[in-house]
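input
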Amino acid sequence: MKKLTRMLALACMMCAGYVGGADATSYDYGDAPGYQQAKHSTDQWQTLGTLWSNESSQRSEDNDDGVSWSLDNGNTWGHDTVTNGQAVWFRFEMHKKLWGRHLYDGLKVWIDWNQDEDFTDTDEKVYQDAWYFRQAPGYRYGDDVADISRWFYMTLEIPEDALLGETWLRARVTCDESIGGNLDNMDPTGYLWQGEVEDWKLKIEEAMAPPASIPEPSTMLLLGIGLGSAALFGRRNRK
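output
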């Protein structure tokens, strides 16, 4: 009886250890507070940028590094405030640690223009593309080291009716096998085994009205001469 008790106790300890290990499993989560969760399990085949967050739960801040945008046609890149109607260049870095056996890696991007804490409105999917990496230099079928990146670019005009203030951009990457070979199957929420999700805060302000044009001094001088000549001509005619 004592032996049976010890065996049961050992089994309980092993079970507790297994559950504890399961609870400690880490993911890469989306960071936008209030939004439905998005998460990924492994960074081995594709990530946004080169950093990947190992998180036991969703955090508001982490070490995302795969998304940036430019307000000066690509001369400088960062995460500056944008304005309604402004043309903005966006850049997404997809990085591969290992080559893999799948066909392509997919990228999809959403922006919550109306700030209703979802990415499901018809105009909120703003970009998608795929990297058919088997055509890349040095490709080898299988899980050999790749250590290669590709950048994706898009130009987007901020909608005139986008709500002002802070909203969120969400970008995700994964392999074609995780989405059934169809990029349209990649949703902004839910679990995907491979890849990464990054959420970036996007601040939108109202565009400033252009300043009223002020005539240059030379223009004012010519106008004055013209008015003076017209007045003199008028007086002569009256004589």
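quick obs: Helices lie at 2-23, 217-238.
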